[in-house]
Write a structure and sequence with these properties.
The chain is an alpha/beta fold. It has 17 helices and 25 strands. It folds into three domains: 242 residues, Aminohydrolase, N-terminal nucleophile (Ntn) domain (Glutamine Phosphoribosylpyrophosphate, subunit 1, domain 1); 200 residues, Rossmann fold (3-Layer(aba) Sandwich); 137 residues, Rossmann fold (3-Layer(aba) Sandwich). The longest helix is centred in the C-terminal third of the chain and has 22 residues. It starts with a strand and ends in an 18-residue tail after the last helix. The protein binds 5-amino-5-deoxy-1-O-phosphono-D-mannitol. The site of 5-amino-5-deoxy-1-O-phosphono-D-mannitol (M6R) has 16 residues, from helix 8.
């Protein structure tokens, strides 16, 4: 879960690399480092902590070359320290490597290299890589060959960049199970863990596949398979513009991304949905009559999007839906076969557990469909079918706009399935119209955030908070609770409102805050009486609703526009995102980069 970036060209490498690292910091921020090749010497500067520490390191101006690699670290092996920071060099200081991923057999490799006389200065798994390359170089005298032999020895995941004075006009890169893109410029080329890191310089990208290697010169890129046979790859033009990955007028990326939601939801709907027309998904040709079960598999917020939309698939398509965490699904021998459709949801398309679950489903013969935000990411290359959310780059670690886009897209997919199965009804038509109305309703919520801001001020010092709801309101409560934990570090739980009296209500006492979500006309009375039960026990209550509710002692009543309860998560989640955001701000926390977390969880 680290971020890597590389540059080769005629500009000074350092400013490009620092800019790239700043944009990749969401992947980890325990330490950062740069290596620039100049006059046949590998010059390295590292700093513990955030990229800004590296940026202000007095040694950095000494790095003046035009070929460089850089890294921002999320510590796995070894504490955050200078020694454990990347880039790592081999003993002879001829090979510099940055690495994102985990080398599972590094202890074994380290022992083997130690027997050969190599010594190590860090506790990292990565340090074996430059030494392994050096070991093979001694016999092969060819860097590309040495890299290809070294990576054959690695078990685990990696995206690596290698530079060396022995090959002074190239960066060698390779990947397996960790993301890596190559940005193509004029007389210069870029490497990065993701597109936004170099989007300021180019919109043309190559996506390296697992077990592929590339030799990148400033005006030429050559691709090879793992036996070093040359291969051809297709260049892709990416529509995202650089401004979409900048903060603009907003104080934080998270706030910017919350406010972007009406726009990106509109883009996600795109031309897939039009009133009085059938929904349309190019290239999906699954025979739905042959499917008797749908599994929705994902992690974190993406999994919550699955929970929020299972009701739509069941309601309109009459196919049972099970939602599971990828980390559980992959280890529980799920009952799936060729009659199962497995839907995988992921913003990044790089989440290790989701990828493993997807591979398992494919091996079991199930049909696999991915709902992904990042174009060309690993999941899109494995799944049988991919549909894209159009959330644009999501930079804040806490996912917001990706979630609303996922919920909208899955709802549209459910309509498409229902229509493909031959279902049609007035309700289905109205549902389409309601989806088209969502962006303007989202805007109404975002136009007035004062009540939420005030309530956050009232409760931000509390140690625990509870969220309750039923049906889709329960799914959204889980997402609200996750957002709060992630960025405010307040302990919180989400419960199905009906479960309260089976145990959790014992936690409610004077002054405890309970957030109720009540948007389902058939269930509003039930949820409100659950809230009455906590009010009786002294709870401080905020309600998010679009229904007529009884007159009760509610401390904060957030009204949102009316819509089908199957779509309400798209609206009701917004006050919950803002609530978590304002609480984190009141606590003076870094909302974009919460502690211990990284944006893409590319390790298990
Ligand atoms: O990139 P993905 O959507 O696969 O990521 C899944 C989760 O890691 C992610 O949603 C995580 O829970 C977020 N930090 C939530 O805000």
């Amino acid at each position: 879960m680290c971020g890597i970036v590389g540059y080769i060209g005629t500009k000074k490498a350092v400013p490009v690399l620092i800019k790239g690292l700043l944009s990749l910091e969401y992947r980890g921020y325990d330490s950062a480092g740069i290596c620039v090749l100049n006059n046949d010497i590998l010059n390295v500067v590292k700093s513990k902590g955030r990229v800004k520490n590296l940026e202000s390191n007095p040694e950095l101006p000494n790095l003046t070359g035009s070929i460089g690699i850089a890294h921002t670290r999320w510590a796995t092996h070894g504490i955050p320290s200078n020694e454990n920071s990347h880039p790592h060099l081999d003993n002879s200081k001829e090979f510099a490597v940055v690495h994102n991923g985990i080398i599972e057999n590094y202890t074994e490799l380290r022992k083997m290299l130690e027997k050969e006389g190599y010594t190590f200065i860090s506790q990292t798994d990565t340090e074996v890589i430059p030494n392994l390359i050096s070991y093979y170089y001694k016999t092969e005298k060819d860097i590309l060959k040495a890299v290809s032999l070294a990576i054959k020895d690695l078990k685990g995941s990696y995206a690596i960049e290698v530079i060396s004075p022995l090959l002074p006009d190239s960066i060698i890169v390779a990947r397996k199970d960790s993301p890596l893109v190559i940005g193509v410029g004029k007389g210069e080329n870029y490497v990065a863990s993701d597109i936004p890191a170099v989007l300021n310089y180019t919109t043309k990208f190559y996506f390296l596949e697992d077990n592929e290697i590339a030799k990148i010169d400033k005006d030429k890129i050559s691709f090879y398979n793992n036996s070093l046979q040359p291969i051809q790859k297709e260049i892709k033009d990416i529509e995202w513009d650089a401004a979409s990955s900048e903060k603009g007028v907003f104080a934080d990326y998270m706030l910017k991304e919350i406010f972007e939601q009406p726009q990106v939801v509109m883009e996600t709907i795109g031309s897939r949905l039009k009133p009085n027309e059938k929904c349309y998904f190019e290239d999906i040709d699954i025979d739905l009559k042959d499917i008797n079960k749908i599994f929705v598999v994902a992690c974190g917020t993406a999994m919550h999007a699955g929970l929020a939309t299972k009701y739509t698939f069941e309601h309109f398509c009459k196919i049972p839906v099970e939602v599971d965490m990828a980390s559980e699904f992959r280890y529980r021998n799920p009952l799936i076969d060729e009659h199962t459709l497995c839907i995988f949801i992921s913003q990044s398309g790089e989440t290790a557990d989701t990828i493993a679950a997807l591979k398992l489903a494919k091996n079991a013969g199930s049909k696999t469909l991915a709902v992904v935000n990042v174009i060309g990411s690993s999941i899109t290359r494995i799944a049988d079918y991919t549909i894209y959310t159009h959330a644009g780059p999501e930079i804040a670690v806490a996912s917001t706009k990706a979630y609303t886009c996922q919920v909208v897209l899955l709802n549209i997919l459910a309509i498409y399935f229902a229509e493909s199965l031959g279902y049609s009804s007035k309700e289905l038509e109205n549902f389409k119209t309601e989806i088209l109305e969502l962006p303007s309703k989202m805007k109404i919520i975002l136009d007035d955030t004062k009540l939420i801001e005030d309530f956050a001020k009232e409760v931000y010092t509390q140690p625990d908070l509870y969220f309750i709801g039923r049906n889709t309101d329960y799914a959204v409560s889980m997402e609200g609770s996750l957002k709060l934990k992630e960025i405010s570090y307040i302990h919180s739980e989400a419960y199905a409102a009906g479960e309260l009296k089976h145990g959790p209500i014992a936690l409610i006492e004077d002054g405890v805050t309970v957030i109720g979500v009540a948007t389902n006309p058939n269930l509003v009375e039930k949820t409100m009486s659950n809230l009455e039960e906590v009010i009786t026990r002294g709870a401080n209550v905020m309600v998010i609703t679009n229904q007529d509710i009884p007159n009760m002692k509610i401390n904060c009543n957030i009204r949102i526009p009316k819509c089908s309860s199957m779509l309400s998560p798209v609206l009701s989640v917004i006050p919950l995102q803002l609530f978590a955001y304002y609480i984190a701000k009141d606590k003076n926390l870094d909302v974009d980069k919460p502690r211990n977390l990284a944006k893409s969880v590319t390790v298990e």
